[in-house]
Design brief:
The chain is an all-alpha fold. It contains three helices and no strands. It is elongated, with a radius of gyration of 13 Å.
Length: 59
């Protein structure tokens, strides 16, 4: 979630970023392939989300 917010300014719910996590962690092989990742969900408490981002920045 943080990666998407910082890089693309997208707020995606935790379960919606699982496919991207699989790709970024290397658990899903992408070598030599064209892939698409579907990001979904906006069911996020924005106050809690931005509070979490603020805590990470200040720590």
């Amino acid at each position: 979630m943080r990666f998407l917010w910082e890089r693309m300014k997208l707020v995606v719910e935790p379960s919606g970023v699982v496919p991207l996590a699989g790709v970024l962690s290397g658990k899903i092989s992408t070598k030599g392939r064209k892939i698409g990742v579907i990001l979904s969900g906006g069911n996020v408490d924005l106050d809690a989300f931005f509070g979490m981002m603020k805590e990470k920045i200040n720590s």
